[in-house]
Design brief:
CATH superfamily of one domain: Hypothetical protein af1403, domain 2
Largest sheet: 5 strands, mixed, barrel
Helix content: 40-55%
Radius of gyration: 68 Å
CATH class of one domain: Alpha Beta
Order of helices and strands: HHEEEHEEHEHEHEHEHEHHHHHEEE
Structural class: alpha/beta
CATH topology of one domain: Rossmann fold
Shape: elongated
């Protein structure tokens, strides 16, 4: 590694200690990028400011290290003396003392590098399959009635979850599906617990575990757990680890909470919040109803002021009716008076036009007697004429001839037979007698010639 110091310049110049340390710091930070360094923590100090100071050592050497507060807050575990760790750090120099040191960006327990690679490989594989797509996320029910909790009964996070749910939603029924959350075979056991919770009558599943190292949380990075979450019939809320911890289960879950307590808060609404909101709505309804009633009452008063009194209206109608009755009576009396006058005038005119009925009656009686005599004479004359005509008709009546023993012969066409020469033997004849008809046939024809 060749130096970038301008050797001629430094050889001739006289540097102060500060200038030298500043130049060395710049050279170190330029020549050494961020790198991983492994070792054991010793001489660890948690400063009141939140910074961490410790020594990273191995069997042959040691180096001072610093983790600033903003970086220390993002660590997924609490560093302790004697821990084997891997630090991603920037090589630098503390100018005030001239101490060479590492400014640590992040820290992980030794051996987690391989796990992290496996984590990234599995995450990339499942992401390619589309298991993390947003459209696959299932919404939580607005009001959860029963929650299936998948965790270990011994987990300290469970007590935090139960306390949070008891405070926020004591009406929600809880069912715990017990399973180991770390160690050999934990992933398979978690997947079985998820399947059992999915088949229950719960509304949602809460998968929770407290914080820990990547090794402690590795069961939630196993493929069998990830696929069990996606295959679940119910929405799954993941509350695994601390806020800085991420597992593949977080990516596939329908909702990821930073901590188990936060997961318990997110899976169901705060009962008291809804009660307060309901009380507020009730108050608003009462206020609005009161305002509305006041407006309607004011409007009613306004209408009542505009509406005349019914008694007054009735009195007005009665007075008007009495006036009309009086007018009608007057008009009637006047009309009757005029009618009486007209009637009297008509009677006078009728009397003047009436003839002497006694004289006319005598003339009518005399004419009636004459008419009666004339009618009697005319009727006798007509009866005499009718008797004479009837006698003539009786002499000409063919039936009278038949009564004397004669008969009329009719041929098949209904015509009277007057000449025997027109007949032939076997011709059908009808003989009309005075009383009934006779059907016969011609036997022979005898001519008078």
């Amino acid at each position: 590694m060749s130096s970038t110091f301008p050797s001629v310049t430094f050889a001739e110049a006289i540097l102060s200690v500060g200038e030298l340390n500043r130049a060395v710091r710049g050279e170190l930070e330029t020549r050494f990028p961020l790198l991983w360094v492994s070792g054991e923590i010793s001489s660890l100090t948690h400063a009141a400011s939140g910074h961490l100071y410790f020594t990273l050592k191995d069997a042959n050497a040691q180096v001072r290290c610093t983790i600033w507060r903003t970086r220390a807050q993002l660590l997924g575990f609490r560093p302790e003396n004697g821990q084997k760790v891997e630090a991603r750090a920037l090589v630098t120099l503390y100018e005030a003392r001239g101490d060479y040191q590492l400014n640590v960006e992040t820290l992980r327990l030794a051996g987690q590098g391989g796990l992290f690679e496996r984590f990234l490989e599995l995450k990339a594989k499942l992401e390619t399959e589309g298991l993390f797509r947003a459209e696959l996320k299932r919404p939580l029910p607005a009001f959860v009635r029963r929650i299936a909790i998948v965790t270990s009964p011994q987990a300290s996070a469970l007590q935090d979850v139960l306390a949070t749910l008891a405070r926020r939603a004591p009406q929600v029924a809880l069912t715990i599906f017990s399973t180991p959350v770390q160690g050999e075979g934990a992933g398979r056991r978690i997947a079985l617990a998820l399947a059992a919770a999915s088949a229950s009558d719960s509304d949602a599943i809460l998968l929770c575990r407290g914080g820990g190292s990547m090794e402690d949380l590795w069961a939630f990075n196993e493929e069998v757990v990830v696929r069990a979450i996606r295959a679940a019939r119910l929405p799954v809320v993941s509350g695994v680890g601390h806020e800085t911890d991420f597992t593949i289960a977080d990516f596939v879950a329908d909702l990821r909470a930073p901590t188990p307590t936060a997961a318990a808060e997110q899976i169901c609404p705060d009962r008291q919040t809804w009660l307060d909101r309901l009380s507020g709505l009730c108050r608003r309804i009462d206020l609005n109803q009161g305002n509305r009633l006041a407006q309607l009452s004011q409007h009613l008063d306004h209408l009542a002021a505009r509406l005349p009194s019914p008694a007054r209206q009735l009195a007005i109608r009665r007075a008007r009716l009495a006036m009309l009755v009086e007018r009608l009576r007057r008009v009637g009396d006047h009309g009757l008076g005029r009618a009486r006058v007209v009637l009297q005038q008509c009677l006078l005119r009728l009397d003047r036009q009436c003839p002497d009925l006694a004289a006319h009656l005598e003339t009518v009686d005399r004419l009636a007697q004459r008419l009666q005599h004339a009618a009697t004479h005319a009727a006798a004359l007509r009866r005499s004429r009718l008797a004479s005509a009837a006698q003539g008709l009786r002499q000409l009546d063919p039936l009278a001839v038949l009564a004397r023993g004669y008969a009329i012969a009719f041929d098949a066409d209904g015509k009277a037979v007057r000449d025997a020469a027109g007949l032939q033997p076997e011709d059908a004849l009808r003989l009309a007698l005075a009383n009934g008809d006779v059907q016969t046939k011609v036997v022979s024809v005898i001519s008078n010639s």
